[in-house]
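Researcher: Go.
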Amino acid sequence: MSFPYRLAELTVEWLNELFFEKGWLGAARITTFDATPLSGQGGTSLVYVLRFTYDHSAERAPEKAIAKFSSDVEMVRQALRDYRLYEREIEFYARFGSDPGIPTPQCYAASHDAKENRCFLLLEYIEHSHMRDMHDGSPADVELAIRYLSAFHAKWWERKKDLEGVESENAPDLLELRIQKVKRAFQKVGEKFRADFGEISFAIVELWLAHANTLAEYARRRPLTMCHGSFHRGQILFPDSVKESFYVIDWQSVSVDSGAIDLSRIIVSGLLPDQRRAHEERFVDLYYRGLLAGGVTNYSLEDLWNDYRLGIINLIIFHTQIFADYDVAIVSRHWKGKDSFWDALFHWPGNAASDGGAVDWLRKTVAALPL
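Model: Structure:
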């Protein structure tokens, strides 16, 4: 069947065909549906809550669903094309959606149009769960996320054959693209925003640019697993009560990488600095014990701390490259509330890097690696 890539293309007829093929309708049919934009959505996709009306009872069919379309902004779609972000999410649900090792919404339909770089996802609507504030939440939320994260990473730990075809952020083509974007972004930062950026983050980006290929080779030799790639509060549906479930959404950045990439993101981006300092060691140890419980061997706690430091460095690099394609004012519109745009993107990770000795570790590591 053909797929709708814009809300205007989604019809009652198409939905009835899909639901009928899945055996959900029996004699019932959808008569109408309404679409409400999902509040708090990001800038890369258009997301709607669909509510269906049936001509009579259809017990197996959903009352609601989530429809996710690619952005209507050509510049956004082009920027995402560079890293295959829409395709990654579609492929994730197609290959791993039935049993990824971490709770995700059920996928009803998924498709990608390579020519226009448009995508469509129809997903289960999750009741009694919601996203927390992206940057200012409870350590209990982060602890819950880490317990699920360690089991997920343990499931895919070093399963290279099963993960063939999943994108690697350290693959030579993506790395070269990232280097060029960070160079371009860093020039903007140096010209206009160095004081806002912070000297620690500035020093880390300078070091990374000087040694990016060497660091990527180091990263490729580390134990690898499937990673979410953007594991923060805004990508998690937390349960409203202990009886409800935890779900992870938005798999556009799924990749093969060090698990500490996800771990550092949820800790550094998910906690205010004083909270992070109070809980960081315990949370890293919790994740490590989760890996061991999941059967991971030949990986020490020292290994994890080193990978965690690299994860913080990569978080700063990820945030820096935003400037390559977007105006700062456009990006900052998505940071609302009391927390500073610069704090969340650069000062908090920079503080974490400083507290954990990431800059010294980076200098020593690149000095010890072959050129």
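Model: The mean pLDDT is 90.
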